[in-house]
Amino acid sequence: TGHFTYDPGFTSTASCESQITYIDGDKGILLYRGYPIDQLAENGDFLETCYLLLYGELPTAAEKADFDYRVTRHTMLHEQMNRFFSGFRRDAHPMAVMVGVVGALSAFYHDSTDISDPYQRMVASLRMIAKMPTIAAMAYKYSVGQPFVYPDNALDFSANFLKMCFSVPCEEYKPNPIYAKAMDRIFILHADHEQNASTSTVRLAGSSGANPFACIAAGIACLWGPAHGGANEAALNMLQEIGTPDRIPEFVARAKDKNDPFRLMGFGHRVYKNYDPRARIMQQTTHEVLGQLGMSNDPLLQVALELEKIALSDEYFIERKLYPNIDFYSGITLRALGFPKSMFTVLFAVARTVGWIAQWKEMIEDPGQRIGRPRQLYIGSPQREYIPVNARG
Ligand code: CMC
Predict the structure, then answer these.
(1) pLDDT single digits (tens) 151-195
(2) Model confidence at 2, in pLDDT bands (50, 70, 90)?
(3) Do 193 and 199 meet the contact criterion of CB atoms below 8 Å apart?
(4) pLDDT digits (tens, 9 = 90+) for 77-118
(5) Are 336 and 289 in contact (CB under 8 A)?
(6) 243 Cα–ligand 1 center, Å
(7) How many CB atoms lie within 10 A of CB 116?
(8) What is the tens place of the pLDDT at every residue in 227-265?
């Protein structure tokens, strides 16, 4: 058994070479293709970020217009897919619906199975980026019992998404540019994060040559967990449970108690041992959105700010370098935009789809690519003889 390095949780194993995203966890730096996340989030838009992650460079104006057009052409979902939704219980968690419906796309796009063809890889990438918001909005509409809303290709990515979620046939809908901008920024912040659990899942699934839609469904399943993308929903649940700032010390004490499994959701990160740069931008966006909505006194925001202050001055959190992560503030903003908690991780999935597909594409195009196949340290029984059932004592 001495041939392998034992590395549970892969804390010190690089699984691949990548040119896409760089993180310096000690300094709190995050770069997409070399560009700092704050510059992209403040100045760019989500489709531009998609182009950058997929192709490695920021697009020229002409390239951007062409890319936007090509993505937009794929926003519709096959009409037959509508029936897929009605197979779910109406109170199904939207993430459960996402895992199923996105996986089912592999049954609609057989041509994508030919991953050796660069054209098919490109079309699969565009389809995935374009259809995720449509599927996510349908999962939401299904959960609230409202009719599905078709995509509106005259709108930009995020305004269209909000329209598909929040417009109803009986009322006129005007996209609010402030909401759309905030949504776009949230998508940019979540677009990629190198070899996190869900991205590693997509790469591992893809390394066998599986259909890319099925690989993304595997990534969605992994993202769902509360230690990963599910943390935004869990963080808001926690803030609501705390309710008022006077109850914070009780919860901080629980988080520090090793006999209590409770953790401060939205705190800590495997790689960041400094403030998560995404959390900084997210906090600023939360203030902007709540300010514009006249909700600056939102009690949950007050609890969050106070909790952050108390935790960051506490020995336990300082010693372990536990800072707020992106999920700490995103829930408060998404709630202000009108999303229920059950949709938070779905929105994360919409954004991360581009990261997953860019990483999948990079892997498939890597000439050194081999199937991912970790080894183990076997600690079970040594070899023994089979005993017939009647002879077993
Ligand atoms: N609250 C209280 N204690 C914590 C927390 C927390 N949120 N996070 C870590 N710790 C403690 C942990 O108990 C351990 O203490 P000790 O050394 O005394 O045993 C120490 O800090 C190191 O923690 P770990 O579990 O070994 O760290 P990890 O790298 O395996 O886990 C993590 C990282 C993000 C899963 C973890 O910090 C956590 O569970 N955080 C809460 C969930 C969360 O917010 N997840 C979102 C992550 S960012 C977005 C995303 O990835 O989707």
Answers:
(1) 999 999 999 999 999 999 999 999 899 899 999 999 999 999 999
(2) low
(3) yes
(4) 999 999 999 999 989 999 999 999 999 999 988 877 788 999
(5) yes
(6) 22
(7) 9
(8) 999 999 999 999 999 999 999 999 999 999 999 999 999
Residues 307, 210 share a domain:
no
What pTM, to 2 d.p., does this model score?
Answer: 0.94
> What residues line ligand 1, using a CB cutoff of 6 Å?
9, 196, 227-229, 231, 255, 263-270, 320, 322, 325-327
Q: Is 331 helix (H, G, I), strand (E, B) or coil?
A: helix
Query: What is the spatial distance between Cα 188 and Cα 133, in angstroms, rounded to a whole number?
Result: 14
Same domain (yes/no): 243, 355: no
Whether residues 270 and 220 share a domain: the answer is no
Cα Rg of the chain (Å, integer): 22
Residue 215 CA to ligand 1 centre (angstroms) = 26
ipTM of the complex as predicted = 0.96
Q: Are 66 and 185 part of one and the same domain?
A: yes
Query: Do 107 and 252 fall within a single domain?
Result: no
Do residues 95 and 235 share a domain? no
Domain range spanning residue 300? 231-337
Residues in the chain: 393
Q: What percentage of the chain reaches a pLDDT higher than 90?
A: 93
Spacing, Cα 319 to ligand 1 middle (Å):
13
Instruction: Please tell me what DSSP assigns to residue 113.
Output: G
Which residue's CA is the nearest one to ligand 1's atom 50?
228
Let me know whether 195 and 297 are in one domain: no
Nearest-CA residue for atom 45 of ligand 1: 227
Domain count of the fold of the chain: 2
